[in-house]
Amino acid sequence: MEEGFVKFINMKQLYIPYNKKLVEIARINRKKPTQAENKIWHEVLKDKQFEKYKFHRQKPLDNFIADFYCPELMLVIEIDGDYHDTQKEYDILRSEKLNEYGINVLRYTNDEILFNINSVHQNLKDKINFSPDKGR
User: Fold this and answer.
1) pLDDT higher than 60, residue 115
2) Whole-number pLDDT of residue 5
3) What is the secondary structure of 48-108 as a DSSP string?
4) How many Å apart are CA 4 and CA 62, to the nearest integer?
5) Could you tell me which of 65, 61, 68, 75 has the C-alpha nearest to residue 6?
6) Quick count: other Cβ atoms within 10 Å of Cβ 120?
7) What is the architecture of the domain spanning 7-128?
8) What is the C-alpha separation between 34 and 81, in angstroms, rounded?
9) Domain boundaries, the chain
10) If 33 and its partner were Cys, which of 38, 70, 76, 111 is the partner (CB 3.0–4.6 Å)?
């Protein structure tokens, strides 16, 4: 992987380099999603349900695997389970590294997804700040 390499594609999307060793792990993760990942995928993100934007599940980016990634929005959505309480520093480092590529990272907890998906959906819309002139 080339350090700091970012390539323009179609003037809208960027190619983000990734560690190819993560591809198989990402594939396994897609086959065994958590309950919260499954819920947000099926109820909000799958098949361009969210404002017609395409999201990818378990997407390798740099040396990380993002839970959900939309290249058009340059947005990663992370679902934080209980184990994230023990890795806050890693999560901060990871977000900072993705920010260097121009990727915004939004985090939601398992409980937010499982027990208040409508609020998460609305919050996601608010954070994206959709406007009619946005290229969709």
Assistant:
1) yes
2) 34
3) GTTTT---EEEEEEBTEEEEEEETTTTEEEEEE-GGGGG-HHHHHHHHHHHHHTT-EEEEE
4) 10
5) 61
6) 23
7) 3-Layer(aba) Sandwich (3.40)
8) 9
9) 7-128
10) 38
